[in-house]
Amino acid sequence: MEYGELSDFLRKRREALQPEDVGMARGRRRRTPGLRREEVAVLASMSADYYSRLEGGRGPQPSAPMLAAIARALRLTVDERDYLFVLAQHGIPPRVTRLDHVNPGILRILDRLDDTPALVLNRLHETLAQTSAHIAFEGDHSQYDGAERSGIYRWFTGNRGHLNEDAWDNHARVLVSLLRSVVAADGPKSRAGALAKTLRELSPEFAELWEAHEVGHEHRTTKRFQHPVVGDLELQCEVMEDREQQQTMLVFTAIPGTESAEKLRLLAVLGSQQVGAGSGRSPGTDLR
């Protein structure tokens, strides 16, 4: 592993970022140019000691998931992320992994939505990043592992979140339609194909919808939820597509002046308490 070049690359990318670039408060008595090492560690969800040893050229070879987390924390472009992987002797990630690297521009938007539930999903509806308000709204998605990382898998195996029951049928059809499109593009032997095969075996509901061959089924922009803390919510779901990365950002807002808007403000406070000082996002983990 090229410790010297890796250390230098990490240090220079860290120093090129300011706290405001990643949604952090600058605070007083800041002498370090750019971010501090411990701030990068917070953003990457790792210990400050581990990151410090890695940047100092003293740590063991980082795993691919660790590198992916650091790449997101440092707001690396896809090309910079590939270079980081090469320096750590992992080689350039395959395309399916590259598409789990969130565009730095999207991350900057999330950093400015700390009081708004928002998240970034890949093509299998695996959460790549979410705001603290979304963590308060729907829980920390980074806790999921394996097949449960997919929101499609969770939905058809019983985890339906807080969405009102009257919307379940439409939402299920949207999810199956989305997965069918991915399987058609990637093939039956892809990860999407494996997910569809698993769900056909586990869920009669999924199997029935899959046989209907629906594609392009559109989601409803107005969604109603029953939240366990704040109760009924009526939210607008805005969708932003990153076609190059094949990712989707969902942003949930309420009409100003409504009861739902007041409840969202309460959830934003709860979210900031859960995440604590530092980043307003919870990064997901890379697909493997």
From TrEMBL:
Transmembrane segments: none annotated. The lineage of its organism: Bacteria, Bacillati, Actinomycetota, Actinomycetes, Propionibacteriales. PANTHER family: BLL4672 PROTEIN, BLL4672 PROTEIN-RELATED. GO terms for molecular function: DNA binding. InterPro entries: Cro/C1-type_HTH, Lambda_DNA-bd_dom_sf, MLTR_LBD. Residues 34-81 form the HTH cro/C1-type domain. PROSITE patterns: HTH_CROC1. SUPFAM superfamilies: lambda repressor-like DNA-binding domains. It comes from the Bacteria. Gene3D superfamilies: 3.30.450.180, lambda repressor-like DNA-binding domains (1.10.260.40). This is Helix-turn-helix protein.
